[in-house]
Amino acid sequence: MLRLAYEQGGRPEMNVATRWVIALVILLPTGPAWAATTVTVGTDPTKVVIKGTLVIPDQVLDGELVIEGDTITCVAASCTAPTGATRVTVTNAYIFPGFIDAHNHVAYNVLPRWTPPKLYKNRGQWQGSDAYKVFKKPYDDLKGKDLECEMIKYGEVKALLSGVTTIQGTSPGSQCVRTLIRNAENQANLPTSANHIRTFILDIGSFQGGINWTATKSFVVHLAEGVRGDPKSLTEFTTLKTKGLLASGTAVIHGAAFGDTEFQQMGAAGAKLIWSPRSNLVLYAQTTNIPVALQKGLEVSLGVDWNPSGSDHIFDELRTAAQVNEDDFSGAIPDADWIKMITLNPAKALALDAFVGRLAPGLKADITVLRSRDDNPTKSVMKTHLQDVQMVWVGGDLLYANKAILDKIKPGECEAMLVYGSQKKVCVKNTKLQVLKATQTLDQIRTILQTNYPLLAPLTP
Question: Is the dihedral of CA 227, 230, 232, 234 positive or negative?
Fold first, then answer.
């Protein structure tokens, strides 16, 4: 079983499977990781043709896709190249839809790992503990110094390095978004209203009013985070139903306490489930019963949760989930689901599937290119590490890539960084949008945060 074992004295003792989870961020292969990429720069920077192996994600196609502005206009074995388009050809790589982290607390990712002093029954216990309050104080201090913009952008960059192009978990009304990856609650640079997605992370008992489901298409709610059958956590589900909040637009984060009855009712309503296994294991030594959720017809998405108890990045969260599936779920999650859990499923859960989550004409040009580590794209993703990320496009804008690629497509722009021996560049500074602190570079953001908080978590652990 994949869980934390505890000695009589209450100190954590790791079994073999748990050591495997913790070691994911330590036993990384080092050295350069390059797919073969050729770039022919065109005369029109708004038009790009990318050729290679496309994961759509329901099928794999050796073909091309065309970007015009912020939109994909062709996905086929062969596309007509727009006049003046830049041509990018990648081999030994897979071209995916940009990944979607369905649940995160973006600004909290400045914090390092937290080692809980014990296991808990539900989130109310650890959130109310003195140990957590001491750990969280630097976060409160940074916010008190008006550094939330820097905190959010640092968290966005951390996600971007793993191919994430859309993330859930930035407070609605945040002032510094729109220059990097898409923030789901903040309209995500998409033609949606401020009420299109509503998020509620507090105790559901404190939720006031109702949901106008005509305007709100996704209600993302923190619910039943705790051990299976925990009475307090299950009461939250009863409250959700009493308030009329269980509907097809409801996306439950965690649902770890749920059993057959709760998942049956969620399935009947057409609700969705968002799963963060590593964080659950660290805090409660168990996680959501995904096999039962799947039996009841729920679509499951994956979310990293946050740096203190979640994975360092989406690839480690996938590997944790796969290990739980093997050790505890008897392989109930089919291989075909893994890529969907970080693309199409979260797009549906966040009601953004008309814009992102697939490679298809008319959708936004959010694209992640990964070095191939296996002939099967799903197995390849499971073997992927940060240095294997070759390119990340958000709305047709290349924001992160191997240095050689960005040197050609955006010469003289962006910042160099070394990721486990692989030379990369990241484009954080934005001089085009009138967004608060948009012109900050990554180096400036990191310096500001480290000056105020020397224990700042690294971007590449």
Answer: positive
In the numeric block, which tokens belong to residue 269? 């309503």
CA distance linking residue 133 with residue 114, whole number of Å = 11
Task: Please give the Cα distance from 41 to 299 (Å, whole number).
Answer: 41
- Write out the two tokens for 366: 């959010």
Q: What is the mean pLDDT of the chain?
A: 93
- The domain spans of the chain are 100-349
Does the pTM of the predicted model rise above 0.90?
Answer: yes
> Regarding beta strands 164-167 and 182-183, do their DSSP bridges make them parallel or antiparallel, or are they unpaired?
parallel
Alpha carbons 57 and 36: distance in angstroms, whole number? 22
- Specify the pLDDT at position 58: 80
Domain 100-349 in CATH 3.20.20.140: yes
**How far is 79 from 393, CA to CA, in rounded Å?**
19
pLDDT over 60 (residue 16): no
What pLDDT, on a 0 to 100 scale, did the predictor assign at position 35? 81
> What does 298-335 look like in DSSP terms, one character per residue?
--EEE--B-TTTS-SSHHHHHHHHHHHHHHTSTT-S-H
pLDDT in tens, 174-213: 889 999 999 999 987 899 999 999 999 999 999 999 999 9
Which residue in 12, 29, 202 sits closest to 117, CA to CA? Answer: 12
Cite the DSSP H helix spans in 246-384. 260-269, 277-284, 290-295, 314-327, 335-340, 344-349, 377-382
- Tell me which H or E stretch contains 13: strand 12-14
Q: Name the residue with tokens 């600004």.
A: 107
Please list, in sequence order, all residues whose beta carbon lies within 8 angstroms of the beta carbon of residue 459, skipping any fewer than 6 positions away.
Answer: 154, 157, 158, 161, 417
Q: How many CB atoms lie within 10 A of CB 197?
A: 26
CB of 251 closer than 8 Å to CB of 350: yes
Which band of pLDDT confidence, cut at 50, 70 and 90, is reported for residue 173? confident
Report which of 302, 251, 252 is spatially closest to residue 278, judged by C-alpha positions: 302
As a whole number of Å, the end-to-end CA separation of the chain is: 26
The span from the CA of 406 to the CA of 418, in Å, is 14
Instruction: Name the one residue in this structure whose structure tokens are 């216990």.
Output: 125
Angle at alpha carbon of residue 365, lines to 364 and 369, rounded to 5°: 140
Instruction: Give the Cβ contact number of residue 115 at 10 Å.
Output: 11
Q: Which two tokens stand for residue 452?
A: 């105020």
Chain centroid to Cα 247, Å, comes to 24
